[in-house]
Known about the structure:
Distance between the termini: 46 Å
Radius of gyration: 21 Å
Bound molecules: adenosine-5'-triphosphate, magnesium ion
Number of helices: 12
Number of strands: 18
Oligomer: single chain
Amino acid sequence: MTGGAILPGATLGVLGGGQLGRMFVHAAQAMGYFTAVLDPDETSPAGRVSHIHLRTGYDDAAGLAALARLCAAVTTEFENVPALALQTLAGHIRVSPGADAVAVAQHRAREKAHFVHCGVPVAPHAVIQTPEQLAAAGAELLPGILKTATLGYDGKGQARVGTRAELAAAWERFARVPCVLEQQLALAFECSVVLARGQDGAVVSLPVQRNLHRAGILAVTEVHGQNMSPALAQQALAASTSIANGLGYVGVLCVEFFVLEDGRLVVNEIAPRPHNSGHWSIDGADVSQFELQVRAMTGLPLTMPRQHSPAVMLNLLGDLWFAHGDAPAAPRWDALLRLPGCHLHLYGKLEARRGRKMGHLTVTGATPEAARATALQAAALLGIAPF
Ligand code: ATP
Ligand code: MG
């Protein structure tokens, strides 16, 4: 559906109640919208701060019907929402991103095919759905990473394989579900682009973000003029725009890249929503990725975000709650918040678990050096390894 903008006062819906949904709700409410979250978990981070929380499954007909009745537009905060749910809603109200684009992001093989179609380089890879394809996978793909085609996140559904025997064993362990085998690349670093594309095709984006992953999970994002060469950043922005255009995308999209040791840029994957690597924009830019999501879904104008402060974002994983033993204890936020430019975000999750994203800390500073120095002090206080 197209047409005029949906203005503040209307109710906006989001499928999924995790931290991304929570920060979307915060942005929407700040702009004067009412919000509805659909998530079966009664303690979900977004459900607890939304005006309305529908506690049903994502394929529950009554839940979806209620969402369509209550809301003027709906978006999503996680990529594994059933495509059918988006299609059903789209019959009644404005839904962004669309089911077709989400379906591409949900499937690694389709995603890679789309990148190739857009002329953006990808890692050498093979789709593995049959024993014949397994046997035919080229030797140049080893050592490699076997990834399930669907449902992977934070490094889950992935196995590093060095030999054909390990590859075969890993595929068995994944119960022979469709997979993609990727050559393991020599990475210099990783980066990502968060952009928003409107119904009219206009694209705006945040500056390119440099990301450090640890054990398959994002640990640190740095955004400032010294994080990569302008030429490389330009290349990443252009590639991201063509990927979004090729999907006819409407909404916020994140494109993750690898920068190889030889300097080449390779696209890794896309997320059809705001992304952990864009969280810094709440505190470091004049338009956050969540405000962009609100603007894109309502048809409000998209203005180019301006970064006003160099920023370093540290993820706060549940591991930090176990620094002093097996009984979980929250880090000393009071000591941390003595540091200048620290913006603490906690997602209201009731239970800390290792590897669970409990919150994030964005450190802003007048210069990249200042932001980095304070972020390193914060990391030391929290027990996060230096970067
Ligand atoms: P996300 O949490 O971003 O959804 P994911 O589980 O979907 O993660 P990927 O982004 O595919 O997984 O991989 C996670 C991390 O593993 C990457 O950020 C990178 O550090 C590493 N990695 C993945 N594929 C490769 C590769 N082909 N070569 C080298 N490193 C890789
Ligand atoms: Mg990833």
